[in-house]
Request: fold
Amino acid sequence: MASRKKLQGLVAATITPMTPDGQINLPVIRQYVDYLISKQNVKNIFVNGTTGEGLALSVQERKQLAEEWVRQGKDKLDHMIIHVGALSLPESQELARHAAAIGASGIAVIAPFFFKPTNKDELIAFLREVAAEAPALPFYYYHIPHLTGVKIRVEELLDGIKEQIPTFQGVKFSDMDLLDLAQCINKNDREELVFLYGVDEQLLSALAIGADGAVGSTYNYLGQKNNMMLQAFAQHDLSLARKYQFLTGEFLNFVIKLGFGVAQTKAVMTFVSGIPMGPPRFPLVKASEEFIANAKAKLNSIVWPTD
Reply:
């Protein structure tokens, strides 16, 4: 069900809800979809990525989650991108075929990071083999070098990639190298590709050089605030846009100093939305009560421009 709308604006990197004993909690996803739409005005999702603990889940669990998100998001969400990257090429291909079969609107793939590609050609060869299993779906490369250790610059990767992967539509760019991103956007003069930024606290900088939108975890619970930033930027009110970015940054700077990762994101989403996200999967451990109290107090203390 590849959407006719261009993928742009905010994309929530979805959290995987889990029961207290660590099993995926599918029944809350319907409520989750409605919450994103009604409370955060976010209508695009990125499932089974880093925030969703995708690489800590079994293939079967990833399929079940993808199915439930697509089922609950049908006719409600604009884009449902399923991350199908894996260390095993056959597993990644299996997940790509599954995403196509259930009606996802696109797939994304992270670089394999144990046996790593060492150059552009090796990486493209892996991506091509996955994309070929879902030939009707838009394909996105998920660039996150600080976690994968694969530091091939996206600018280099783009040269000739459409010839090898006809379904290639763009990049989830989760890196702080704004020069690389800028060069990609500069080369995209016909605007054939989509560049979605993945470092939430620097989104405004990415917008200024031409990013189409963003994929991130904070859009689960600060989506409405970030939408206001996007609106201000579109209306050339840079002063207001900066206020939203600085306040988002103030919260993230505070929690990063406390230790902020997937487990803590699940805790923040739980107290903001009221939807139980549960614990993370080992080796991650759940957020402490002290963290939750401090994060909640900090978020409640922020005075947003619209408050």
About this structure: The chain has 13 helices and eight strands.
